[in-house]
Amino acid sequence: MTDSKRRRGLMAASALLGGVLVLTACSDGGDKASAESSKKSQAAAVDKAAAQDASEAQIAISPKNGATNASINNDAKVTVTKGKLSEVTMTTSAGASVQGTLAADGTSWQPNGQLERSTTYKINATAKDSKGREAHENSSFTTVSPANSFIGNFTPEDGSTVGVGMPVSINFNKPITDRKAVQAGITVTSSSGQQVVGHWFNSQRLDLRPEQYWTGGSTVTLKLALDGVEGANGVFGVQQKTVTFKVGRNQVSTVDASAKTMTVTQNGKTIKTIPISAGSPDNPTYNGQMVISEKFKETRMNGATVGFTDADGKGEYDIKDVPHAMRLSSSGTFIHGNYWGARSVFGSANTSHGCVGLADVKGAGDANQPAAWFYNNSMVGDVVIVKNSPDKTITPDNGLNGWNLSWADWQAGSAV
Fold first, then answer.
1. In total, how many domains does the chain have?
2. 266 and 396: one domain?
3. pLDDT at residue 101 above 80?
4. What's phi and psi for 48, nearest 5 deg?
5. Are 268 and 126 members of one domain?
6. Phi, psi of 148 (to 5 degrees)
């Protein structure tokens, strides 16, 4: 074989081998693609199988996961559709367990009581569908903090019996800027059918009353639906409750400071007239309609607490055992027993520092004394009217004394 023929043969062999190598390389790429396709098919098959085997139970938890300023009033709830709850645990972030109740049909769960403010809670829930397949859901939320919530301290108390002049008085622990929203969440109704209207004395006090005194023997219901109500920017209500109280017999007592007598009526009929000693000419008693807000069988009265001192010439006093005392104003006006004054002043002279005094004995132990009789026959919410005194009429917000506003002026203070 010649050299030229040998070279042509080697070149042909080389070309043939090169073609084989190229073909081999292409064949390897096809195998990899096929493997990837196979993996995807297998994964899809697994996903499909998992989906087909997934529980049909669908769990919902409220408040939603991550919620802040959540309600403390049993808004926490776990529900399930297409299944029944098999286990629910609720704990604080510190690990304390919260007890709850599962509904008889197994479709819902709630904590048993009110939650704590400014606390983070975690809920873990498990449910099973009709085939026994499990579903799981978790959630965490934080309740409203004291700094971001408000409450209303109210009077009278639930279940109490009060006199016909007792308003519903609510004092909020934070200033309210959205008075309309807050008042809309408060309703007061009476079995007598009387219309009840609210009046704001300031940003933290709302009183509610009818045009005339409550009807004797009626039942009054206060409903606070303030949970979640934004009373001020970023400050929410947390109260959700109903309060009822009863109104007793209609007792109104009228003090005539000039005649120095008090006439007590029940249901419009006079039952007793009592001699009294009202405020002296230098310290006269307020005129106006006043409501008994507190009762003390004995109490201390210190003139320095209401501005009476020897230095200002008004006369300082400190009596540690004033008997049968009943408060008529926030500023210190009482109707009470007096054992230190001469019996002759009652019915004949006004000698007090502004209170209304009735004859009594030291120690409040004699039920036959005029002050004892009046104390024993009076209740919180009874009305005491003072007239013919040289002093001004008491301001409506000094005590529970909104009755001194006309009905038109009272309505003008409503935000709804």
1. 3
2. yes
3. yes
4. -65, -40
5. no
6. -110, 25
8 Å CB contact between 372 and 324: yes
Distance CA(350)–CA(5), nearest Å, equals 151
Task: Tell me the DSSP string of 281-350.
Answer: TTSPPPBEEEE--EEEEEEEEEGGGGT--GGGTS---EEEEEEEEEE--TTS-EEEEESSS-GGGTTT--
Q: Would you say 371 and 240 are in contact if contact means Cβ atoms under 8 Å apart?
A: no
Domain extent, residue 70, equals: 58-144
266 in the same domain as 163: no
- Alpha-carbon radius of gyration of the chain: 40
Q: Check whether residue 244 and residue 315 sit in a common domain.
A: no
> What are the pLDDT digits (tens) for 199-225?
999 999 999 999 999 999 999 999 999
Tokens of 169: 């008085």
Which one of 201, 231, 248 terminates a domain? 248
The structure's pTM equals: 0.79
Last residue within a domain, chosen from 144, 168, 194: 144
Residues 303, 268 share a domain: yes
| Residue 17 pLDDT exceeds 90 | no
Reply yes or no on whether the pLDDT at 143 is more than 90.
Answer: yes
Q: Where are the beta strands (DSSP E) in 191-317?
A: 197-202, 205-209, 219-225, 230-232, 235-237, 240-247, 251-256, 261-266, 269-275, 288-291, 294-302
- Residues 104, 213 within the same domain: no
Dihedral angle of Cα 342, 276, 387, 321, to the nearest 10 degrees? 80
CB 265 within 8 Å of CB 253: yes
Q: Are strands 100-102 and 84-92 parallel, antiparallel or unpaired?
A: unpaired
Give the tokens for residue 161: 């019996």
How is the chain split among helix, strand and coil, in percent rounded to 5? 20, 40, 40
Strands 168-172 and 152-155: antiparallel
CATH of the domain at 375: 2.40.440.10
Structure tokens at 234: 């970023």
Which residues, in sequence order, are bridge partners of residue 199? 207
Residue 374: closest CA among 274, 266, 260, 250:
274
Look up residue 412 and give its two tokens: 């003008």
Strands 251-256 and 383-387: parallel
Beta bridge partners of 108: 79
CA 414, CA 164: separation in Å to the nearest integer?
A: 21
Average pLDDT, the chain: 89
Collapsed DSSP state (helix, strand, coil) of residue 31:
helix
Q: Does residue 358 form part of some domain?
A: yes
Of 325, 318, 285, 278, residue with least CA distance to 301: 318
